[in-house]
Amino acid sequence: MKSLKSFRLGGIHPPENKFSAHAPISSIPLPKQLIVPLGQNLGVAPKPIVKKGDEVKVGQLIAKADAFISANIHSPASGKVLKIDDATDSSGYRRPAIFINVEGDEWDESIDRSETINREIVLDRQQIIERIKDRGIVGLGGATFPTHIKLMIPEGKKADYLLINGVECEPYLTSDHRLMIEKGEQVLIGTKILMKALEVKRAVIGIEANKPDAISHLRELSADYTDIYIQALQVKYPQGGEKQLIKAVVNREVPSGKLPIEVGCVVSNVGTAFAVYEAVQKNKPLIERIVTLTGKAVRKPSNFLVRIGTPITDLLEEAQGMPEFTGKIINGGPMMGKALSTTDIPIVKGSSGIVLLPQEESRRPEEKPCIRCSKCIQACPMGLEPYLLAKLAKLALFERAESGKIMDCIECGSCQYTCPANIPLLDYLRLGKQKVGHLIRTRKN
Q1: 356, 15, 376: which is closest to 210 by C-alpha?
Q2: Count of beta carbons in the 10 Å neighbourhood of residue 213
Q3: Which pLDDT tens digit goes with each residue over 189-198?
Q4: Spatial distance between the Cα atoms of 188 and 205, rounded to a whole number of angstroms
Q5: How many CB atoms lie under 10 A from the CB of residue 13?
Q6: What residue segments make up the domains of the chain, in order of their start?
Q7: Under 8 Å CB-to-CB from 137, ≥6 apart: which residues?
Q8: In terms of CATH architecture, what is 125-282?
Q9: Which pTM was predicted?
Q10: In this structure, are residues 128 and 60 in contact, taking their beta carbons and an 8 Å threshold?
């Protein structure tokens, strides 16, 4: 363990519960209807360019980005547009979506559907960025930031390293793990494409040591890619946090309020690297992704290849149904994910997993007074004072919360996990960040 790299501040060790780690990626049948939300990326939602009654093919552009930070959306199936209407998303709110009645699986002719691995990268840097933009690729690690924007390095900055995040430190989730095992060479080619777009000479793929099969597999494959290094990392949550990964791998610290490019780094998820491979080498848009469906009582923990817009209900059916006494359904992992109000919510580009928690683990214990034990401070990987920031947010003292660097919080939940008083620290921190973010935007305007 001493030879494994890690970040320095804080961190915790929740039970891993990787029940689906050995479940191969499997496809599920197309549903009768897809609900494709427009708000699938960080930034401005794209605008629909189809209307009720239009016939669409798989991969056809159906919503076009017309803002700087936005991402195109393509049809995940062939069929007819039923309507453009509001639908409930993972936040519980109703937001615009395109409803498509599925009438087959006819793909756009420009997409290469062959299984042949295309290793030769013929596009130049600008062509790569344009292809990624056109194909609607976003970060698949959770943030869904449009990938083409991340590749546009600001003037005066330079990227020294590309870091590929294969950590998947969130308990239960295994979609990235299976991707590295089953599509390892495509991930490496996607990494090379990103390196060409960034004009960097060195890439590192960081993987936690609890995935020895993925580490050994990628190390074997990377023998032909001498500028891509596979780094094993200590098992510690949140090892996959962007700033934590940078500290662990290249020992650089991103300053408060700054982005990784300030220290010469760009970070991308392994799922994003694979999506980039498919976009650039196969001309395939981001119309499907791997989603883990798992839980202690789930009969068949699985990693599904799912078309965007597929209702979660369909995944549950493929995993042999919802277990009795399920208390909560979490979109994402148990540390950073959020509870869902219904299973009719569709899978989107940012859906990494669905975790089913039993009733006994779903009830929040009674909140008690803070005893100033400092466990939350010790656990915080950003060096913050979570108990204080949460209190300031609760009391609506948002300017003081801002000066306490609440915006540096990465919402990992480590503080709440360690709190013996059962204080919902993460809830208060999220509220505080939302309010402080609004204050900052108001000042700029």
Answers
A1: 15
A2: 12
A3: 999 999 999 9
A4: 9
A5: 10
A6: 125-282, 375-444
A7: 71, 146, 147, 148, 272, 275, 276, 279, 285, 286
A8: 3-Layer(aba) Sandwich (3.40)
A9: 0.96
A10: no
